[in-house]
Amino acid sequence: MSLTIERECPTCHGAGKMPWTGIYADTLEFLRSQTEELNASELARLAGIKPTAMCNRLVALQRMGFAVGRRYGKECLWRGI
């Protein structure tokens, strides 16, 4: 006999979705608003943040499946999905 315990998520209350806010949501919205692929330095300049912060956010978004980085020579061009 196996015991199965089901519990509702306290965040989404079983809806399977939860609201996403904060710096990653803001960065994704900004990334999606760009009309062309840009490197992290250009995105950082346009967003008014440090390039290192933008790189960290872009990599996190890529790991979550919301951003795509494409190598172009020595740089990486980014776009939101």
Name its key features:
single chain; 81 residues; alpha+beta; three-stranded antiparallel β-sheet
Would you mind describing this structure in some detail?
This protein has 81 residues and is α+β, with helices and mostly antiparallel strands. The chain is 41% helix and 17% strand. It is built from 3 helices and 3 strands. The chain has helices at residues 23-33, 40-47, 51-64; strands spanning 38-39, 67-72, 75-80. It has a 3-stranded antiparallel β-sheet with strand order 1-3-2. A hairpin with a 2-residue loop joins strand 2 and strand 3 (75-80). Helix 1 (23-33) crosses helix 3 and helix 2 (40-47) crosses helix 3 (51-64). The chain is elongated, with a radius of gyration of 17 Å. The model has no long low-confidence stretch (mean pLDDT 84).
In the sheet with the most strands, the strands line up as 1-3-2
The radius of gyration computed from the alpha-carbon positions, rounded to a whole number of angstroms, is: 17 Å
N-to-C span: 45 Å
Assign the structural class, choosing from mainly alpha, mainly beta, alpha/beta, alpha+beta, or little secondary structure.
alpha+beta
| Largest sheet entry | 3 strands, antiparallel
User: Total strand count, please?
Assistant: 3
Write the layout of secondary structure elements.
Elements: H1 23-33, E1 38-39, H2 40-47, H3 51-64, E2 67-72, E3 75-80
Antiparallel strand pairs: 1-3, 2-3
Helix pairs in contact: 1-3, 2-3
